[in-house]
Each structure stands twice: as C-alpha cells, then as structure tokens.
Design a protein that fits this description.
By secondary structure, the chain is α+β, with helices and mostly antiparallel strands. 22% of the residues lie in helices and 11% in strands. The chain is built from three helices and four strands. The strands form two sheets. It has a two-stranded antiparallel sheet.
Length: 112
C-alpha cells in the first residue's frame, strides 16, 4: 500500500446492511487537500453519481436507505433568491413562473 503524507486523507463512501458491507458499493479516493478541510472533497454530484452507479444497483428492491443530514446529500434544484440576491434574481423568478409583478417595485417589496 502506498504511504500517505501527513495530512492526506482517504475519502470513503460505503453502505452496509444486516449482512455487512454492500458488495460493489464502495467509493474510495484520495483527498485533494492537505489543509485538513476535506469536507469539500465530496459534493452532491459525486454523491448522487455514487448512489446511481454503486449503491442502487447493489441493494435489493424496496430497501430503506438511511442517511445523516449532510449538505451533499441534498440539492436545491430551483433555489429561491434571498434578500442578499440582486433585484434581478427575484424578478427573473417571477417572470419564469409567469407571476404578474411591477418591475419598478422596490427589492424589499418583492419578498412580501
């Protein structure tokens, strides 16, 4: 096995069931950072790819999947603009949703 430098980490994503580890469901890769902040090494896209390609094909139908509430387990597909967004963002959303609005409305009033 290759010797790792201090600060390097392996990222391991896996699943288990009552019989132990789920065969074929492992994802292991070397962290690309030595800063100690390895949390950014996996994101929703990587996680979702693992679920589709490694987890789902290797578990029985009707299995229950339990996950902790980690940020990369979810993704907001159509995020709502926040009060910190530019005025353009909520107006674009209103237009996309065909919601009647006055483009001259103040930004703070758009959120009411």
């Amino acid at each position: 096995m290759e010797k790792h430098k201090a600060g390097q980490r392996l990222i391991v994503v896996h699943a288990s069931n009552e019989n132990g580890s789920v065969e074929g469901a492992s994802l292991v890769f070397k962290s690309g950072t030595a800063s100690g902040d390895y949390h950014g090494q996996i994101n929703f896209d990587n996680f979702f790819k693992w679920v589709e390609e490694k987890l789902l094909p290797n578990i029985p139908p009707n299995s229950v999947i339990y996950m902790v509430n980690t940020s990369y387990h979810t993704k907001v597909l159509d995020p709502v603009p926040s009060k910190y967004s530019t005025k353009k963002k909520p107006i674009e959303l209103l237009m996309e949703k065909n919601i009647v609005h006055n483009p001259n409305t103040k930004k703070t009033e758009l959120y009411d």
